[in-house]
Amino acid sequence: MRYFKVIMLFVFILGLVLGGFACQTAQLSSPQAKLEVIPAETFLSPALIRKPVAFKGSGFAPKEMITVEMVLPAGLKMKGITEGEDVGIAVGTTDENGAFSTAMQPTATLNWFFQVGWTPLLRPNFKEARPIPPGVYTINATGLDSERVGTATLKIVPPPKKK
Amino acid sequence: MRKKCLIFLSIVLSVCFSIAIFSSPSCAKEVSYLSLADYTGPIAGLNVPADMGLEDYIKEINAKGGVDGIKIKFIGIDTRYDVARAVSAYKRYRRTKRLLMVNSISTGIGKAVARLIEKDKRLQIVPGDGEFQAHLQRTFIWGPAYQDAFAASMDWVMADWKAKGKAGAPVVGYMSWDNPFGRELLRGGKEYAEKLGIKLLPPEFFPPGTLKHDVYLTRLAKAGAHYIHAGGVDPTPTNVIRDAYALGLTKKIQMICGYWGPTALGIGVHAKALEGSVITSFYQRGTDAIKNKVPTDLWKKYRGSLDKYNEAYGMGMSWGMSYVAGLKFALKAVGYDKLKADDMYNAYQNITGLDKHGIQGPCAYSPTSRRGSLEVKTYRVENGKIVPITGWRKAPDAVSLHKF
Q1: pLDDT, tens digit (0-9, with 9 covering 90-100), for B180-196
Q2: Domain B146-281+378-401 -> CATH class
Q3: Which residues does A contribute to its contact with B (CB < 8 Å)?
């Protein structure tokens, strides 16, 4: 009888944990949020200020705010960011169909791709710049009401060699 | 077998018990303050000392046992003045238990985060955008609105003009950053100047980071400006006046600034060029700030010598004073266990008249006011020091003159 009670207790706790997990998964996966990074591959150059990396998404809730974040690989130190933290690189708002498009603002490109310093004249200081290394970076777009997440990648390649 | 089962059962119960204990409110009584700040970006020069003041004030409160035994946790995030980073940081911290307030360092960040603040039934403070007074929500401003302080500047201009024995009204030029902040002062400020009969020249807007301001200054001078308002956040106004000085314009044109005009930061670099410039501020500046023992004693205790003291430190302390007063009110109303962010929002509407120890005017937050204070004081740069030339006076309500 005692064994039966212990087993029932175990099953009950397990049920609670799995139930909670299932609810969370269901919330996150329905419907499927999608994200596209444009372009999906690029190299760092000042041209990104004029023609920045852009993002398109769908499958989010209507009229919700979206935060687009770059997941920093372990060991990559970034000015102003605590290790293990993702860095926000763009914001957007979805339309009535749950779709959005947005692009990185110049401050975001300068701060997070080039990691520039700033002069007292409020100009970016490229002498202090520490551009992020080439690699494949995970990009997440999260709906701030629905908490749906769309994921894509951005590949940063080394700049072409000067001839 | 029975023994094993009992061991297993006791482990399960211990884990459950531990979780219950650690999540219980009696474990660590703490409330949080989130600063979406700029520590390494373009306006770090003013934000760093301001958050130092806030952080030291919180340290002092905590060292004395907190507010009714409740400690305040300061969370400072370096957004580098970037909206995307600020929104992402808010997402990260918005579920923090008893996160009672968010301070957004720029108008742009404040406007982006405001939607989430409304949804989360929280409270936010932002610099000085009059729109938050025009449309009352959960966003409060640090002092009078930008346009109110600009209107007070125009009052000073008229008084100065008359004191010089001149008839009629002067011609005033306006130049500032080409962004929403740069334009905000004129949304109500323009109407106020016109009401006084002042001829406001077409404004000159320039991008933040402009190296030289000669073109804009020359255009305003040629148009007959007697006074020029140098906008932007210090060191921009300092650099505008530096250029006006180099062009010889400061001999015949009076340069004036709003509340982000020169602080110790600008004076330290261009004291000679700034000589005679006039600043209208909602927080104590220059010699006034140095004489006020409330902020300077705290600085000396936590930071040492006053050599690097910046007036923005006092403004940061003032944020802390409002927070502590709001927390006391909220705790009295609902107690710690039931305390939610919404209670702090209600509390902030009930700390009207809170004394800020001379750092700025008394708190003006109320159910119908989002202004941190109503008073401004006018200063002039004299002999390389910022000295007061008026007492505290109520800034006109310029927000109500504009249709938002």
Answers
A1: 899 999 999 999 999 99
A2: alpha beta
A3: 2-3, 6, 9-10, 13, 65, 67-69, 79-81, 85-91, 104-105, 107-108, 111-112, 117-118, 120-124, 142, 144-145
